[in-house]
Amino acid sequence: MTTTIPAWLRWANRHAVDLLFPSRCLSCGIDLPSKTGSPADRRDEVDFCAACTNELVTSGGSQVATNVCRRCAAPIPTLPGVDCPHCMRKTLWFDQALALGPYEKRLRKLVLRMKQDRTETMALALGKLLCQRLKWHRVTKEGEADLGCPLDDSACLVMPIPMHPWRRVARGTNAPSVLAQVIGRHFSLSVLSRALSVSRNSSPQKGLSRHSRFQNVRGGMILKAGYPIEAAKVLLVDDILTTGATCSEAARVLKLAGADHVTAVVIARTTG
Ligand SMILES: [Zn+2]
Ligand SMILES: [Zn+2]
């Protein structure tokens, strides 16, 4: 007896696989070479073609050069002796920041898609690229010192910037949480997704001045009881870093609770 699989089930099955293992570059849409190996192997493969990957990772790779501030991940003048104008004399509670790249061109389009993508395919894909970026830090001594958080150290924790529940419902996705999960899984680090929480729903940061952004988020986050982070090194994960106000407020909460070192890890750093 032959069993006919309904067309709708074949369609659903094909698209479920496409969501998990996209067969086309998520940026330019060209066909990707067919992926082989077990699902566990395939899940770490990047979902962009070689050209797009190169462009995305290379722009992030510029952070290891002298024209990106290691403290706040902003592009800075390459003149010797010139401090970063973005974080100079500013109080930022995180120790340093690392971005896949500047919030412009192709990466900006992908981040905007990620924020709307309820399937979380784009967050998973950009998370994997971010892991490629972080790997550089693991394989070089200089990079590891830069990161301040050895990725094979069990004292290194991964924590996403929390999102207010209402905002999460409205958006239908929580990219920082997905990115944190991808990083934690890739490097076998503990992910504390619920340790930080929003204590009040701050106004959206968009449109506020730099000073107002810091005021707006002040006191807006708490570390829940039962999460000892004494002497921990934390990778604090968010999608975009603009003034650094949100990451700084989270880092302040973590530092006051005893965290030793906080690195803000983001997909994109605004350049304005
Ligand atoms: Zn492509
Ligand atoms: Zn800076």
Largest sheet descriptor: 5 strands, parallel
What is the helix tally? 10
Helical fraction: 25-40%
CATH architecture: 3-Layer(aba) Sandwich
Q: Beta-sheet strand percentage?
A: 5-15%
Overall 3D form: globular
CATH topology: Rossmann fold
Unreliably modeled segments: 60-66
Mean pLDDT comes to: 81
Which CATH top level class fits?
Answer: Alpha Beta
| Total number of strands | 7
* Domain module tally: 1
Instruction: Enumerate the strands of the largest sheet in spatial order, edge to edge or round the barrel.
Output: 1-7-6-2-3
Structural class: alpha/beta
Listing every helix as H and every strand as E from the N terminus to the C terminus, the arrangement reads HHHEHHHEHHEEHEEHE
Radius of gyration: 19 Å
Terminal residue distance: 66 Å
Bound molecules: zinc ion
Task: Please tag this protein with its features.
272 residues; alpha/beta; five-stranded parallel beta sheet; 40% helix; globular
Please provide a written account of the structure.
- The chain starts with 6 loop residues before the first helix and ends with a strand.
- The longest helix is centred in the middle third of the chain and has 19 residues, at 121-139.
- It is built from ten helices and seven strands.
- It is of the alpha/beta class and 272 residues long.
- Helix 4 crosses helix 5 (121-139).
- The radius of gyration is 19 Å and the shape is globular.
- It has one domain (57-269): Rossmann fold (3-Layer(aba) Sandwich).
- The protein has a five-stranded parallel sheet, with helices on both faces. A two-stranded antiparallel ribbon has the order 4-5.
- Residues 25, 27-28, 30, 48-49, 51-52 line the site of one zinc ion.
